Amino acid sequence: MRIIANSLLASLVISISFLSCQKEVRSDNPSSGGGPGTIVNPTPITGTVTGKVVDNNNIAVAGATVKAGSNTTITDNRGLFRFNNIPLDKYASLVTVEKSGFFKAYRVFSAIANNTNFVKLKLIQKTLIGNIDAATGGSVNLPDNSKITLPASGVVVKSNNQSYSGSIKVYAAVIDPTSADIAQIVPGSFQGNDADNYRVLLKSFGMLAVELEDNSGEQLQIASGKMAKLRFTIPSSLRSSAPATIPLWSVDETTGLWKQEGSATKTNDYYEGDVSHFSFWNCDVSSQTIYLEMTIVTVEGPLSHVQVKLTRPNGASSYGYTDSAGHVGGLVPKNEALVLEVMNTCNQPIYTQNVGPFSINTNLGTISVTLSPINTLQITGSAVNCSNQPVTNGNVLVYFEGHLYVRPISNGNFSLTITRCSNSTATIEIVAVDNIANQQSSSPWTGSASTGSVNTGVISACGTSSISFIDYTVDGSNYILSTANPGDSITTYSNSGTTQNATSVFGFRLSQPNMNISFYSQGAAVGTFPLLHLSVNQYDSVTIVAPFNINITVYGGPGQFIEGNFSGQIREIANNNLHNVSATFRVRRSL
Q1: Facing residues of 199 across strands?
Q2: DSSP H or E run through 185
Q3: Among 124, 367, 441, 527, which residue is least crowded by beta carbons within 10 Å?
């Protein structure tokens, strides 16, 4: 897994209203002419994704399982995760997050090739709303008067499609499309494919998450040929503009995009419609789009990891996060004037500009903003290699307030501007990496700051080998995962219970074409701990055969290395076959 000190691109997650338009179809590019949308074919690229997962109280969620395609990792104790150099899609990359007690989360974003993309997800609490008898059917109501009605004898076990009789647990949540944090909560994004397979942007007038389970936690689903009924209470601020009938949309679990399925009818303050399955459902009108991108900088350099907000005349807004080069892009409404705002971490605007309207795909180029020093922290410094010469090909790993920032070293110098809404003092930790000379990195540089400027002085990217590796064996066959680059990383995280019974867990993933290995284990320190999960080569649906321990011989801090070994057996779930696995490793912590 290689850390690349390049851009972090997040999609603009959009909530917008209906536009009437003419028709245009493009095969490789979001619409650049008039039309109800565009057919967007997959556009494969390779890039890196990093992100943050929080709960409804904005508390970091540790130990969540994050997937992007065939790649899997685990969030650390700061809720952070990272995938390095994986297959993505330029216009609709998908990341999913699963954690017990929450609905599965989806995030669809526009990705940039060869760079690091950033996403943020807020998980929706999975709440038991009520129980319904499968034989008789019935209804349950949510706190806002939304309603879920199941048909009599109309539910099956999802895994085998067998008819189910018994008590049905109904888990559900209302997703308010007018909430300030909707960009982090919305399943996928507000991109969808309509009935004609046009890629459109959506404005929601009501959204629900629904799952059915039996008493043992087995997932249930609506039987083929049966229909359930959903009632969506329309937020008060949207009722006057809500149309009499509206398309219904559900999340495509493969792509994360919304797909049009049926319609709902307005009665008083709610929409009601029939659905054939459960996941996430949405009442939306669609609009035509163009692709908009821009780069946000200050006089000090790119403005990284900040939220950019675009607001329409009707008050609907879209959001995105800049990458480490200050770049952000995605689908936005066509032919509408927009207000561009750069936000701080307290969701307050620190820069405002009018932009648009746009009739074709547009790159606004570089937008230079001036920030008040009270809002920003600028970190600068320089790095030399083992010959005491400026590093010409390297990067710095900056850890601040639970976030990891990766910045390139250019001609021996680096600079990072961080926006803040607090002037409290926090610790800064920096590791400088030389990608060329002897693959070396520095010991961590540590300091503290609030706002203003901090200069680290000269950091020597020398003294610690930057080479990471995993040598492993599966059923007697040897494999070596290694890299000539020092950016290999390990994702660590911890789950804490009470003070007396705290559990620390860590895991990592490293892959090359046709070879991969990932695991996580109880224990985040030097010692011997049980291995909790292992995925190796093609074996990813397996159970651990206990005892299976991992020995950690070195456990460094962020930017340093973890070394160790393990040996044991795994069993395939599908066919019960056993496999012997052993490994030794040395991998850099990125988190």
Answers
A1: 38, 193
A2: helix 182-185
A3: 527
Token digits of residue 586: 């040395």
Residues listed for the chain: 591
Beta strand residue intervals within 100-244, DSSP E: 105-109, 116-122, 128-133, 138-141, 147-150, 155-157, 167-175, 191-193, 199-213, 219-222, 228-233
Residue of 258, 285, 332, 336 lying closest to 30 (CA atoms): 332
55 burial type by CB count under 10 A (0-12 exposed, 13-18 middle, 19+ buried): middle
8 A C-beta contact, residue 283 and residue 206 = yes
In a domain, 254, yes or no: yes
323 vs 329: CA distance, rounded Å: 10
Residue reference for tokens 């319904």: 132
Domain of residue 172, residue span? 128-287
Whether 171 is in a domain gets the answer yes
| Residue 154 CB neighbours (<10 A) | 18
Q: Residue 580 corresponds to which tokens in the numbers above? A: 């012997």
d(CA 173, CA 258): 18
The amino acid at residue 517 is I
Q: Are 528 and 487 contained in the same domain?
A: yes
Average pLDDT over residues 46-58: 86
Does 411 share its domain with 523? no
CB atoms within 10 A of CB 574: 7
Residues 436 and 520 in one domain: no
Residue 86 confidence (pLDDT) above 70: yes
Confidence of residue 207 (pLDDT cuts 50, 70, 90): very high
What's the N-to-C CA distance of the chain in angstroms? 13
Q: 269-296 pLDDT, tens per residue?
A: 999 999 999 989 999 998 887 888 899 8
Q: Three-state SS for 374?
A: helix
Q: Give me 285's structure tokens.
A: 């009108």
